[in-house]
């Protein structure tokens, strides 16, 4: 099976990021601010809606808290930053926002619920509708990111392709054996992480979202055991 949805998503990120990096200097600061505010509000609304899908607030809270503890202990955010700095050095980039662009883009494009539900839909039902929608949204988002952070956002296409592609193949292998409660709780936890993305985009508070990525795995385990 070829994960066409993941490939399309990566291509959209490359196209949008390239366009944003090219137009970046031509966009006035107040226009870029409005773009980020609009994205932040929209992402926040989507995250709130998804988080309300949970049937077990206890699992949701436990997953987020324990996932944050594990990710913090593993220093996942610091490791992503280190990789970004290494890439910046290897690519001889002089952009001071290069590393921030890589870290933010990877978090936004991999933490959202569509990054889970899209591969699930393609793997189980052979439908790329959700990932096509995500590709469109990510393409628009990378235009805004590219205008601020430059070419660093283009590198996020690689982890997105690997992450979504691997999930698509995994779900295809598992077939219809994934219980509905697991998908529901995954969506809810992904919704909470999506809320965090919106808060970061609106610059309301700095949330270390990469450290919370283990929450997704914990949600799978807990929902499988108790629901």
Short description:
The protein is mainly α. The chain has helices spanning 4-23, 29-51, 57-74, 76-90, 98-111, 114-125, 129-149, 157-174, 180-201, 214-226.
Layout of strands and helices, then pairs:
Layout: H1 4-23, H2 29-51, H3 57-74, H4 76-90, H5 98-111, H6 114-125, H7 129-149, H8 157-174, H9 180-201, H10 214-226
Helix pairs in contact: 1-7, 1-8, 2-7, 2-9, 3-9, 3-10, 4-5, 5-7, 6-7, 6-8, 9-10
Query: Which strand-content bin applies to the residues?
Result: under 5%
Which word captures the global form?
globular
How large is the count of helical segments? 10
Quaternary structure of the protein: single chain
Helical amount among residues, as a percent range? Answer: over 70%
Mean pLDDT level: 84
What pattern of helices and strands is seen along the backbone?
A: HHHHHHHHHH
Q: If you compute it from the alpha carbons, what radius of gyration comes out, rounded to the nearest whole angstrom?
A: 17 Å
Q: Assign the structural class, choosing from mainly alpha, mainly beta, alpha/beta, alpha+beta, or little secondary structure.
A: mainly alpha
Report low-confidence residues grouped into runs of 5 or more. Answer: none
Q: How many strand segments?
A: 0
């Amino acid at each position: 099976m070829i994960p066409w949805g993941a490939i399309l998503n990566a291509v959209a990120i490359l196209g949008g990021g390239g366009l944003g990096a090219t137009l970046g200097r031509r966009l006035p600061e107040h226009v870029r601010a409005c773009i980020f505010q609009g994205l932040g509000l929209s992402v926040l609304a989507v995250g709130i809606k998804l988080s309300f899908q949970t049937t077990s607030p206890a699992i949701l809270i436990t997953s987020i808290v324990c996932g944050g503890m594990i990710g913090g202990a593993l220093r996942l955010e610091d490791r992503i930053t280190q990789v970004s700095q290494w890439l910046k050095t290897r690519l001889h980039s002089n952009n001071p926002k290069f590393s921030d662009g890589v870290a933010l883009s990877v978090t936004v494009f991999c933490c959202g619920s569509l990054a889970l539900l899209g591969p699930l839909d393609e793997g189980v039902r052979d439908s790329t509708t959700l990932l096509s929608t995500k590709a469109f949204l990510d393409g628009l988002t990378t235009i805004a990111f590219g205008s601020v952070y430059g070419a660093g956002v283009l590198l996020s296409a690689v982890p997105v392709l690997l992450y979504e592609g691997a999930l698509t193949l995994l779900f295809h292998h598992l077939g219809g054996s994934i219980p509905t409660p697991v998908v529901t709780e995954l969506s809810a936890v992904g919704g909470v992480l999506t809320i965090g993305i919106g808060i970061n985009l609106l610059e309301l508070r700095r949330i270390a979202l990469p450290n919370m990525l283990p929450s997704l795995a914990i949600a799978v385990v807990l929902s499988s055991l108790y629901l």
